[in-house]
Amino acid sequence: MSTEARLERAAALVLVTGLLLSGLAIAQALQNPAVLLVGATLSDARAFSVESAARRGWSIQEVTHGTALFEQVLEGDETDGTLVVQKLLRIRAAFDEESSGVRVSLSAEEVEWPLTDREWMTDVTGRYADNLTHALFSLRGKWDARHDAPSSLPLASSPPIMGDMTPSPSLSSRPIGTWAYAAERYAQSRGCELSEQATQLESSGQEWEEHRVFCQDGSQIVARCRHGDCSTRP
Fold first, then answer.
1. What's the Rg (C-alpha) of the chain?
2. pLDDT tens per residue, range 77-111
3. Less CB within 10 Å around the terminal CB: N or C of the chain?
4. 214 contacts 232 by C-beta, under 8 angstroms
């Protein structure tokens, strides 16, 4: 085989590989849980989603034109007053404009030993699909309620683009705890549909936390969590 033929064959293989990877990425994006925020602009949907995540205790890590990145600690160990994060859950929201509004899709990954040489990331979108879908339906319900009554519920201003972000002082001043998300997942497994009220950290010790989770029917579940494993308080 001539050198020219080898080069043409190599170029063809690169092209086919690129097309396959692109197709896989598109297929994965289509499988991610998503909802349409009817009537929203891109900046409206982005600001609304970021505000909602912050109110639920998520750390807002990054916001770009079409994405937002949220994180929450799943496992950690406090040593000398410093929390060493062993595992965190990272949620990426993508915002795509359509003719009738903005489609918000979510993907999830678990990150073990973040920001260390042992860092390891695993895509867990499928494992968290029910939780992500529930969160999206809740987001759409809140959007519809706000969209139907704009005079009484003014839309949040759009957050700045790019860079690290944290919730405003009024949101982040309340203690959240390390395993708030684990407590909410536990409450959902017990039939609780999460309300708008953020989960509260009731008390904590060296290796445990107690969280009060508020449900839409007015009931409350107090979950005691140890390293992310939760049970109902006796």
1. 21
2. 766 667 677 888 899 999 999 999 999 999 999 99
3. C
4. no
3-state secondary structure 18-79: HHHHHHHHHHHHHHCCEEEEECCCHHHHHHHHHHHHHHCCCEEEEECCCEEEEEEEEEEEEE
Taking residue 84's Cβ as centre, other Cβ atoms within 10 Å add up to 12
User: What is the fold of 32-173?
Assistant: TATA-Binding Protein (3.30.310)
Residue type, 164: D
Sketch the domain layout of the chain as residue ranges: 32-173, 175-234
Instruction: Give the C-alpha separation, 100 to 44, whole Å.
Output: 13
* pLDDT tens sequence across 113-171: 888 888 899 999 998 888 888 889 888 988 988 776 544 444 444 444 444 333 333 33
Q: Which amino acid is at 227?
A: H
